[in-house]
């Protein structure tokens, strides 16, 4: 039985310099460089194609021509329902030995062996299988082998064949215990011969690149801007497939947990009059002749929903921030996971929800996403998150206790100010060393650094009934008890320099009977970034929007 690992080296591209264009037009120098690179790639691709096409075959009519070829557009226009059943690549297993299967996927690699054999690795949604094409009378012709070797990588194909079990595992595929002996091969859609970036290059880890350099070899490093410019290709890497499947899982667990706790899912408007929180960092626009902006958060409308007698609500939706934050953790648009709930006695009830919700999320990811986490770890190695589980509650420290820990470590922090990024990271290190956890809650922040609707502490109005939550030394959640008394709310708004007239409908909603309540908001992308210890939030945003990028 023919069997061979299909780890085919792809044609190397010249490394592109770290671009700052981020969705803008390229400079003349950059454009010229990319054009030279394109010509080199085309020349190399032509040479490779010529080599693959060197298989000598009879150019006469092929009696087996019906077993392979390009699918015509007419046949792809929902022409007929044939009843054929496609098998998912991830389901291919030794138990299916000798069964005829039909699979659809992308051509990941092609390896011709002599004139009568070709190995084609087919990938479907991150899972791969090695398919073998061998010339056989009345089944596979040399013309068919030549057709297979002419296919461009990333083209979409239908493969029909028999499942076999190789003598040795196929280490170049995820489905290592099986092969598919091809009997029919059809190209559903062709990819261009020369891709802007190769998937193999985009999937390469920094560890591999550094190890190669130590040996005097130079491998292609695909820079972040290049990845984002060609995001359609970049998202096909195993790591990115894992990242966004984990992101989907976080969203699902968030929703399911809150529904089980009696929360109601809502959808609030993203177009609002005035400023959502009174800040200047909003995207302003004209709304039919009226000044308006894109909401910084659904905060105000969440509170109004509580006044509408829902008791407990949550929302998953876009959040817009217009800050010029050129950091590894800020975006101008991200997916917000927001919660608001009635409080019976104490804002610790909100922190209790945070505790159980996120421990449930972490447990579920570790239990149900092992393959995805392994795929991410191969390209971006990381240590599993340390957090308290079971009966042990998530660590809670007051802001003053955090400041004291920093002070004892030689770091001075304003006890009535906020923590900067460096202080947050240092505190995270101190907490991990002292308590053995990378997930903790810091509460009772100074009132001066919180929004106007935050409830002050009863015993010290300089502090507030608020909290932040941290993963690996970085903040992911901001929450608090809200002010629900309209007169006090208006007073707080004025003290913060907000024109009360611009939020009059919000304040008025508390005049009809409002329960004590609180809530929190978290960025979905940041949760995934920090759980997987990734170094940039753009890795966890499918099509990131930052101060310099609005495409693709």
UniProtKB/TrEMBL annotation:
Which Gene Ontology molecular function entries are recorded, alphabetically? Answer: aspartate-tRNA ligase activity; ATP binding; RNA binding
Q: Does the keyword Protein biosynthesis apply?
A: yes
Q: Enumerate the catalysed reactions.
A: tRNA(Asp) + L-aspartate + ATP = L-aspartyl-tRNA(Asp) + AMP + diphosphate
Q: Per UniProt, which keywords does this protein have?
A: Aminoacyl-tRNA synthetase, ATP-binding, Cytoplasm, Ligase, Nucleotide-binding, Protein biosynthesis
Where does this one sit in the cell? Cytoplasm
Q: Which InterPro entries match?
A: Aa-tRNA-synt_II, aa-tRNA-synth_II, aa-tRNA-synth_II/BPL/LPL, Asp-tRNA_synthase_2, Asp/Asn-tRNA-synth_IIb, NA-bd_OB-fold, NA-bd_OB_tRNA
Q: Where is the Aminoacyl-transfer RNA synthetases class-II family profile domain?
A: 244-544
Q: Which SUPFAM superfamilies match?
A: Class II aaRS and biotin synthetases, Nucleic acid-binding proteins
Its BP terms in the Gene Ontology are: aspartyl-tRNA aminoacylation
Give the matching HAMAP family: Asp_tRNA_synth_type2
In its UniProt entry, what is this protein called?
aspartate--tRNA ligase
Its source organism is Nicotiana tabacum
What gene is this protein translated from?
Answer: LOC107767661
């Amino acid at each position: 039985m023919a069997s061979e690992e299909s780890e085919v080296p792809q044609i190397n591209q010249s490394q592109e310099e770290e671009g700052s264009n981020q969705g803008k037009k390229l400079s003349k120098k950059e454009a010229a460089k990319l054009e030279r690179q394109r010509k080199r790639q085309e020349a190399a691709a032509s040479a490779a194609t010529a080599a693959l096409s060197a298989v000598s075959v009879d150019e006469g009519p092929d009696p087996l021509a019906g077993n392979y070829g390009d699918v015509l557009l007419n046949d792809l226009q929902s022409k007929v329902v044939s009843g054929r059943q496609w098998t998912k690549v991830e389901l291919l297993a030794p138990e299916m030995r000798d069964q005829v299967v039909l699979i659809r996927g992308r051509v990941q690699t092609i390896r011709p062996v002599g004139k009568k054999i070709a190995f084609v690795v087919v990938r479907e949604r991150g899972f791969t299988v090695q398919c073998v094409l061998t010339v056989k009378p009345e089944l596979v012709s040399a013309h068919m082998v030549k057709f297979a070797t002419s296919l461009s990588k990333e083209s979409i194909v239908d493969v029909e064949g028999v499942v076999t079990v190789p003598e040795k595992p196929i280490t170049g595929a995820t489905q290592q215990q099986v092969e598919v002996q091809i009997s029919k091969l059809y190209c559903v859609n062709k990819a261009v011969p020369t891709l802007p970036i190769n998937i193999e290059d985009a999937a390469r880890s920094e560890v591999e690149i550094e190890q190669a350099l130590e040996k005097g070899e130079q491998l292609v490093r695909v820079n972040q801007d290049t990845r984002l410019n060609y995001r359609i290709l970049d998202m096909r890497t195993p790591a990115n497939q894992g990242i966004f499947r984990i992101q989907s899982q976080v969203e699902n667990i968030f929703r399911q947990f809150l529904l089980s706790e009696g929360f109601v899912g809502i959808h609030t408007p993203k177009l609002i009059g005035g400023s959502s929180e009174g800040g200047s960092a909003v995207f302003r626009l004209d709304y039919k002749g009226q000044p308006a902006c894109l909401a910084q958060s659904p905060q105000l409308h969440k509170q109004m929903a509580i006044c509408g007698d829902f008791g407990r609500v949550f929302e998953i939706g876009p959040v817009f921030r217009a800050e010029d934050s050129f950091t590894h953790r800020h975006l101008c648009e991200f997916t917000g996971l927001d919660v608001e709930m009635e409080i019976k006695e104490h804002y610790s009830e909100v922190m209790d929800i945070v505790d159980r919700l996120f421990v449930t999320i972490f447990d579920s990811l570790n239990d149900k996403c092992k393959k995805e986490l392994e795929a991410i770890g191969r390209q971006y190695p990381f240590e599993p998150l340390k957090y308290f589980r079971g009966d042990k509650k998530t660590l809670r420290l007051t802001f003053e206790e955090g400041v004291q820990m920093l002070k004892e470590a030689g770091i001075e922090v304003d006890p009535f100010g906020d923590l900067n990024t460096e202080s947050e990271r240092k505190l995270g290190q101190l907490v991990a060393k002292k308590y053995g956890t990378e997930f903790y809650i810091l509460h009772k922040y100074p009132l001066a650094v919180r929004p106007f609707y935050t409830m002050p502490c009863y015993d010290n109005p300089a502090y507030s009934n608020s909290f932040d939550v941290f993963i690996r030394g970085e903040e992911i959640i901001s929450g608090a008890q809200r002010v629900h008394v309209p007169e006090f709310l208006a007073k707080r708004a004025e003290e913060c320099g907000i024109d009360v007239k611009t939020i009059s409908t919000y304040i008025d909603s508390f005049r009809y009977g409002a329960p004590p309540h609180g809530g929190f908001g978290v960025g979905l992308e940041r949760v995934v970034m920090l759980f997987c210890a990734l170094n940039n939030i753009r890795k966890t945003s499918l099509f990131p929007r930052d101060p310099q990028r609005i495409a693709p």
